[in-house]
Write a structure and sequence with these properties.
With about 230 residues, the protein is α+β, with helices and mostly antiparallel strands. It folds into two domains: about 80 residues, Orthogonal Bundle (Helix Hairpins); about 140 residues, 2-Layer Sandwich (Heat Shock Protein 90). Helices cover about 55% and strands about 20% of the residues. It has six helices and seven strands; from the N terminus they run H-H-E-H-E-E-H-E-E-H-H-E-E. The strands form two sheets. The protein has a five-stranded mixed sheet. It has a two-stranded antiparallel ribbon with strand order 1-3. Strand 6 and strand 7 form a beta hairpin. The longest helix has about 45 residues. The radius of gyration is 19 Å and the shape is globular. The N and C termini lie far apart (about 50 Å). The model has no long low-confidence stretch (mean pLDDT about 90). The structure holds adenosine-5'-triphosphate and magnesium ion (MG).
C-alpha cells in the first residue's frame, strides 16, 4: 500500500498535468478562432475570385498554425519545468506583434489600444512566445473587463532601468482590493462558463520562470497589471 507522501506526490503530479492541459487549451483559443475567421474569408473571396485576398488569408492561417505549434511547445516546456529558451528580443517588436494577434478582439469590442514606449529601450533576454502569451492574456482580460463600459481603452507602457524592464497594461475599468487578492489563483474566474481562471495563473508562472514579478494595482483609479522582466 502506498504511503501518504507517495499518494500526495501523485495527486500533485496529476493536478499539474490537468493544469498543463488546461493551459495549452486556453492558449490555443485565439489562434484557432483566427483560423476559423480566415477560412470564412477565403470562402467569401473564392466566390468573388479575389485571389489577392485568398493569398492574404491563407498566409494568416499559416502564421496561426505556426503560432499554435510554438504555443504548445512553450506552454508544455514551461510547465514540465524544462529549461527556458531565452533569446535577445526587442520588447517594442514583441508588443506590436502581440497587438496584431489581439487586433480582431480589440476591433470587435471597439476598444482602443495605445502604446507608450520609453526612448532607447534595449533588447531583453526572454522567451518570446511565452511573453507574448502573458501580454495577450492581460490584453484579453482587459477587453473582457471593459467591454460593457462606455469608455473603452487600454494603454500599454514599457519602461526600463539598467536591470529590469517594466510592462504595464492599464485599462479604463477598475477593480476591488478583494478581487486583486484572488485573481491569480488557479481556476478563479468571474466569467462563469466563459472563463477557466487559468490565464493569470499561467501569466504568473511564465513571469516567475523569467525571474520577474507580476502584480495588479490601481493607477489613477484604473486597473493596472504590471510585470517586470530581468533584462539579462
Ligand atoms: N483587467 C482586469 N480587470 C478586472 N478584473 C480582472 C482583470 N483581469 C483579470 N480580472 C479578474 O481576474 C479573474 C481571473 O482572470 P484569469 O485570466 O485568470 O481567468 P479568466 O479571464 O476568468 O478566464 P480565462 O483566462 O480562461 O478566459 C477574471 O475572471 C476577472 O474577474
Ligand atoms: Mg483571462
Amino acid at each position: 500500500m502506498k504511503n501518504f507522501d507517495e499518494l500526495s506526490d501523485q495527486l500533485e503530479k496529476l493536478a499539474m498535468a490537468g493544469l498543463v492541459n488546461a493551459s495549452v487549451v486556453h492558449e490555443l483559443k485565439n489562434p484557432i478562432s483566427i483560423i476559423s475567421i480566415c477560412n470564412e474569408q477565403i470562402l467569401n473571396s473564392l466566390e468573388k475570385g479575389d485571389v489577392v485576398s485568398i493569398r492574404k488569408f491563407s498566409k494568416k492561417i499559416e502564421d496561426s498554425l505556426e503560432e499554435i505549434l510554438s504555443i504548445i511547445n512553450a506552454t508544455k516546456s514551461l510547465l514540465d519545468g524544462e529549461s527556458n529558451k531565452l533569446l535577445k528580443i526587442s520588447i517594442s517588436d514583441l508588443v506590436n506583434e502581440t497587438l496584431i494577434n489581439c487586433k480582431f478582439k480589440l476591433d470587435n469590442k471597439k476598444v482602443t489600444c495605445s502604446c507608450d514606449f520609453s526612448d532607447n529601450l534595449n533588447p531583453i533576454n526572454c522567451n518570446k512566445t511565452q511573453i507574448k502569451q502573458v501580454l495577450s492574456n492581460l490584453i484579453f482580460n482587459s477587453i473582457d473587463a471593459i467591454s460593457s463600459l462606455e469608455e473603452k481603452w487600454i494603454k500599454i507602457k514599457v519602461s526600463q532601468n539598467e536591470l529590469e524592464t517594466y510592462i504595464t497594461i492599464i485599462d479604463s475599468g477598475t477593480i476591488s482590493d478583494l478581487e486583486i487578492t484572488k485573481m491569480f489563483d488557479p481556476m478563479y474566474t468571474t466569467k462563469g462558463e466563459a472563463g477557466t481562471g487559468i490565464g493569470l495563473w499561467l501569466c504568473e508562472k511564465i513571469v516567475e520562470n523569467h525571474n520577474g514579478k507580476i502584480k495588479c494595482h490601481i493607477l489613477d483609479n484604473h486597473t493596472a497589471l504590471e510585470f517586470s522582466l530581468k533584462n539579462i
